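quick one
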Amino acid sequence: MAEKGVKVFGMWASPMVIRVEWALRLKGVAYEYIDEDLGNKSDALLRYNPVTKKVPVLVHDGEPIAESAIIVEYIDEVWKDGYTIMPADPYERAQARFWAKYADEKCNAAIFPVFTATGEAQSKVVHEAQQCLKTLEKALEGKKFFGGDAFGYLDIVVGWYAHWLPIIEEVSGVSIVTEEELPLMKAWFDQILAVDVVKETLPPRDNTSRKTLIYTGSRAQGQGALVPVGNTNRYQRFPPTAGNLPESLPRQRIEVLGFLEGFRDIGLFHIASMHQKRVWV
Ligand SMILES: N[C@@H](CCC(=O)N[C@@H](CS)C(=O)NCC(=O)O)C(=O)O
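structure w/ glutathione:
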């Protein structure tokens, strides 16, 4: 007989995994969380998700379900009582799914290059990310959450922006979600960060432990590097072709994204997943 209960295979810094945790917690569903080393995936993960081999995977009574947005919908359908995640109205549901797809396909793709671009190219990338978010922001007009008065499906899908975009801005030295450019989204960030399930689950942002080394891709790929200045919040940008990466850096790690101590508060896992590189922790 299949094992009873709910398991989530995840990775602590994943914005996709956190969607599933938020949905389960909103429903009050108890679950076991299994943190994966994505550089060395467990046999269980590969067995449960042999197609994409990615997290999150929800295993419900022994049956695996992959793809975070699909899992969130599944959770809403299976645990019908209590908190409602999907909009009740079919038109509103279709709209929420449309914007979720738009955010995942367009906005995420526009945001991640902010890490790797420099100079004029970076200003252009920031502008493009802002344009995408402005389009998304229209779905917030006159509302507290994308879901209206309550934190709902689309908030779950894009809620990670509230935590990670300010980190991306800080590490990349740019401003994306500003009062001037994206006032509704900025106000929504505050709403999201005040939601209990969000507060319970986001990784900490601890200013004291920033000894992180972040390599935004390899030099060979021409993407340069961001290296923290001592134990501070400041980062020094090394241009793509620079032979001037600090001597202290292990050479083999120049070809990868390296996260050392303090990784948790920076959480640039996304760079790693973008480049499909091994992550050292
Ligand atoms: N569309 C997928 C994306 C999942 C995804 O990209 N997961 C990343 C972590 S955020 C992953 O497992 N990366 C490991 C890999 O690509 O091998 C979803 O929403 O579930």
